[in-house]
Amino acid sequence: YAKRGKASRAIAILNKMDQYSSISRNEKDKIRPDAHTLNSIIYSLSVSKEIHKARRSLKILQRLEKSHVSGDWRATPSNQSYNMVINACSTTHGTDDKRAEAMQVALDAFSRLQSSKYAKPDRYTYISLLKTCGRQLSIDSSDRTRIVENVFSYCCEDGIVDDSVLQNFILAAPMDLKYKMSSSACLAFDDKKMSYQNLTAAILPEYWTRNVILSRKC
User: Fold this and answer.
1) Matching InterPro entries, A to Z (predicted)?
2) What is the pLDDT of residues 110-155, one digit of tens each?
3) Which of 91, 107, 69 has the alpha carbon at shortest distance from 7?
4) Quick one: average pLDDT of 72-78?
């Protein structure tokens, strides 16, 4: 059910597993969902049309983290676990309150990933997070400028700015932030006339892209 995107049915089955485990006296008879099971449910939420999918996917992620901390080695969160929660946030639709909630959940998931001992942000993390910013934050919001700039700065620090990350930054960033970023890139490339529209990852500062395989311009 999870792979088919039937989130409600997948969660109902998870609840049945929990009910069975709660009445089982024998520890060996208890059914504990592993990382694959919980990740599948997060995925089903991320591709569903459920209006509460951002919040619900975060709860599943929190359960996965808690299971691992409690000693269940089969329940180790991965990059994918966090990325799918952020993706659920990027595809959330609804009222302004729902969009604000989705943005907050995405930032929460990102913070958890940054603090994780078993996973770390990758290119998909930043692509999904920038998409969430572009879709859930008002274009004229000061929060949008601040959050997009912070997200892109983290990506630069991690050295994984590729063309897809760059394009999603350009789509999400307000105009003044686009010019600010392109100015920094142009200083590194020694071309003060280059527009953000002509930028590619291959001509960005090497520190920003040091962990990406690129065909660089000389």
Assistant:
1) PPR/CCM1_RNA-binding, TPR-like_helical_dom_sf
2) 999 999 999 999 999 999 999 999 999 998 888 999 999 999 999 9
3) 91
4) 89
Confidence of residue 12 (pLDDT cuts 50, 70, 90): confident
Of 128, 124, 188, give the one whose Cα is nearest residue 162. 124
Q: Name the pTM for this structure.
A: 0.86
**What does the alpha-carbon distance between residue 186 and residue 100 come to, in Å, rounded to a whole number?**
34
Q: What is the pLDDT of residue 217?
A: 44
The CA distance from 133 to 58, in Å, is 17
Q: Evaluate whether residue 61 is within a structural domain.
A: yes
Q: Is 55 part of a structural domain of the chain?
A: yes
Domain containing 3 equals 1-98
Tokens 């990852």 belong to: 201
Mean pLDDT of the chain: 86
| 42 part of a folded domain | yes
Q: Is residue 166 part of a domain?
A: no
Contact (Cβ atoms closer than 8 angstroms) between residue 188 and residue 204? yes
Q: Is 101 left (phi over 0), alpha (psi -120 to 50) or beta?
A: alpha
Sign for the pseudo-dihedral over CA of 166, 126, 50, 102: negative
**What does the chain come to in residues?**
218
CA 28 to CA 8: how far, in whole Å? 28
Distance from chain centroid for Cα 167: 16
